Amino acid sequence: MDIIVCLKQVPDLQQIRIKHETREPVLEGAPFIFGAFEKNALEEAVRLKEKHGGKVIALALGNAKLKDTIIEALAMGADEAVMLTDAAFARGGSASVAQALAAAIRKIGKFDLILMGEGSADNYSGQVIGRVAEWLDLPQITYVRELSVEGNRLRATRDLEDALEVVEAELPVIISATSELNTPRLPPLPAILKAARKPMKSLSPADLGIGAQAAVVQTLSNLAPEQARKQVLFEGEADKAVDELVKALQKEGAL
Questions:
Q1: By the number of CB atoms within 10 A of the CB, which of 6, 28, 102, 190 ranks highest?
Q2: What residue ranges do the domains of the chain occupy?
Q3: Rounded distance, CA 62 to CA 67, Å?
Q4: 185 pLDDT above the threshold of 80
Q5: Do the Cβ atoms of 62 and 87 come closer than 8 Å?
Q6: Mean pLDDT for the chain?
Q7: How many CA atoms does the CB half-sphere of 34 hold within 13 Å?
Q8: How far apart are CA 186 and CA 72, in angstroms?
Q9: H helices of 9-168, where?
Q10: Alpha-carbon distances, residue 145 vs 132, 152, 181 (angstroms)
């Protein structure tokens, strides 16, 4: 079976510094990676390929350094990579990202299954899968934690927080993966060395027939709201301290 995995390149959140004066994130110098959910999606695609045959195409969106980042996806088991690095692809937020991915998928052509993470590591809007499914007129199954394919039918278990839902669908279908779906593999050194020799190509907006986007999303701020803290310390024995805490919360109207 032929599987397309959609990947988004993001800054490594563990490496981002915060300006003390403005509390704004400093992205300069931070390495770029694929988010954890994208790796779950890629791992599942590789496992399905190993079981059923076929190939896995890593369709990745990112900046000019994407060629370095995509090596990890190829080392994990993707057979080839298609990269979208033009800044215009992400200029309109989730809407233009989904349009670009859908256009690239049409350009790729043949596929049986599309996998992506349930949300990106940076914005985590969770909107892209629904938008791509609409552009391609495909059924979508979200928040998948278990997945199996038999013949032309797919069976998935969805995590709805308070319940699990089991659904079936005929291929092709688009899936969003959760962290419970699997544990992504760590590629060995030989796989990393071979990855650079696998097919890679870049597509521009002109290649996909996408013109200038009318809607442009501009991030004005991504700061958490300030919270005033009373900094009240309750001392003494536990029971007494709890009573004083309850009285204080009642006085503030919190209870």
A1: 6
A2: 2-208, 225-255
A3: 9
A4: yes
A5: no
A6: 87
A7: 28
A8: 9
A9: 36-52, 66-76, 94-108, 128-136
A10: 20, 20, 4
Candidates 111, 116, 138; CA nearest to 127 is: 116
Please give the Cα distance from 9 to 38 (Å, whole number).
10
Written as six digits, the tokens of 36 are: 């954890």
Cβ(5)–Cβ(78) below 8 Å = yes
- Under CATH, to which class is 2-208 assigned? alpha beta
Taking residues 211-227, report their average pLDDT. Answer: 67
Q: Is the pTM of this model over 0.85?
A: no
CA–CA separation, 135 and 143 (whole Å)? 20
In order of 6, 48, 85, 140, the CA distances from 154 in angstroms are 19, 11, 32, 11
Among 172, 111, 174, which residue's Cα sits nearest to residue 142? 174
3-state secondary structure of 146: strand
